[in-house]
Amino acid sequence: MTDEKLDQILKQALAPEVSDREIQVCKRRMGKMKKFGKIGKVAAAAAVIGICGLGYFNPVLAAKIPLIGKIFEKVEDHITYSGDYTDKQTVLTKEDDVGNLDTLDYSVTDKGITLTASEVYCDGYSIFLTVNVEAEEADFTHIPEHYTGRNIADNQTAAGFYIGGTWSVDGNSPEQLENTLEGKVIDSHTFAGMLKVNLAEKVAGSGELSLNVNGLGYDDDRMLDREEITASHWTDGSWNIVLPFEVNEADVKTIEVGEKKGNITLSNVVISPYQVIVHTTTKGKQRELTDGRREKLLSKDPDLTDAEMFEILGWSYEPCQTIVFNQDGEMLYPDTEIAGRAGFAVQGKEIETLHIFIFDNFDDWIQMEQEGLNSSVADQAVIAKEIHVE
What pTM was computed for the model? Predict the structure, then answer.
């Protein structure tokens, strides 16, 4: 995307009076946040709205009440993947009225910073994990907040806490941690947030998530005028935790589609309480696979998925440009879209019907994001699909 296009998007999205200097700061931060994998596309612009449009503020310091074991309750209305997690999560760790933990198995300390895993929910495609961060020498009250809702009027904002390292499930090859912790500053020394880990393959039953954190950091609103403000407070260290999880399949629905148009295949759509996932593939690569190569690979291992065959052949899927609305014309909040998978936050919206549009042109995606369900570019979508969920 050109700088001019990005300027235009930011000026349209940000609150009324935004200076050119603020836009430049937002653009610098956006590039850095993409490096951490937090956001993409126009969702990136939406994420920095709060930083530039809301301004910076010190949160009201909370009273010392039991928090660990109740973090979802504290942050669920503010985070991007918001919703009611009551009775869906598994509580790993609790604390009493004076702060004593009922188990130390999921708490680890290094470099004066303590990470405590609190609750976990898994829909088979992602793991949603709440984490409490404590650091006696820190001052978290200067961590800025950003918008996590579709509209400024929603007043849905959260603070972000960078986390670096790797994760793996059941001893599989480690993957890089890509998302930040997203949540709330509780007081000067305490941050409570949720980490969302997207699984490479669907998981069933139960398993163990291994977190190997090697760095933690956060932004500081007092450094707005500096050339680089991202993760201005960063600490290298070692925080390793192994956490059990169990897949909650009760409220998860997968709708097979298999529609092919142009160079894109809409494979299926997954609807869980907190996210909608659109799985796609590219027809061009699919055609190469059917040219005798699929059969040859499957003869060696009949359980290979297309993604695994692509990896063996050194191929990769190209990401599409996907946008989703519900039956009321409400656009679902888009997270980073990667090849083969586009994720959207439900944010408490009713999901009875989904209107899915898949473009191969990013400018068309931007125009539809701005104009809504009845956009003039709707007929430019390679695939436009209406899916009835209920």
Answer: 0.78
